Amino acid sequence: MTIKEFAFKLGVSDSALRYYERIGVLKPIRRRKNGYREFTESDIAWMEFVFRLKATGMPIAQIAEFAELREKGESTAPERLKMLQEHEKRLLAELETKTHNLTKIREKIEYYKKLTMRN
């Protein structure tokens, strides 16, 4: 599929994909005889994972590092596993903080509900 089709399937702009290609997150790109980039379903799965990492707050530099390790093959699986485990740990800490804050907000909502019912 072309870069336009690839971008459409992912819901991003083709310039965003070119950026990921430029920083090494999206590689290697196969090219047709006419020079156009050619993408596969495997590329879609990879970029969906990249966007998931980005959406969960992994810095782009770390995503690029992960991509570089991925490109080197299975021998880098321990490093990639460690990166994902560290990211998971950060996400769980954030989730715990947000859950605590949500609990406190709900307590305040209940307080104000009771207060308004008295008036």
From TrEMBL:
Q: Does the keyword DNA-binding apply?
A: yes
| Pfam families, alphabetized | MerR_1 (PF13411)
Q: Does the keyword DNA-binding apply?
A: yes
The secretion signal range is none
What keywords does the record list, in alphabetical order? Answer: DNA-binding
Task: Tell me which residues make up the HTH merR-type domain.
Answer: 1-69
Molecular function GO labels: DNA binding; DNA-binding transcription factor activity
**What InterPro entries does this protein map onto?**
DNA-bd_dom_put_sf, MerR-type_HTH_dom, MerR_fam
**Cross-referenced PANTHER family:** HTH-TYPE TRANSCRIPTIONAL REGULATOR ADHR, REDOX-CYCLING DRUG-SENSING TRANSCRIPTIONAL ACTIVATOR SOXR
The name this protein carries in UniProt is MerR family transcriptional regulator
**Top-down, what is the taxonomic lineage of the species of origin?**
Bacteria, Pseudomonadati, Spirochaetota, Spirochaetia, Spirochaetales
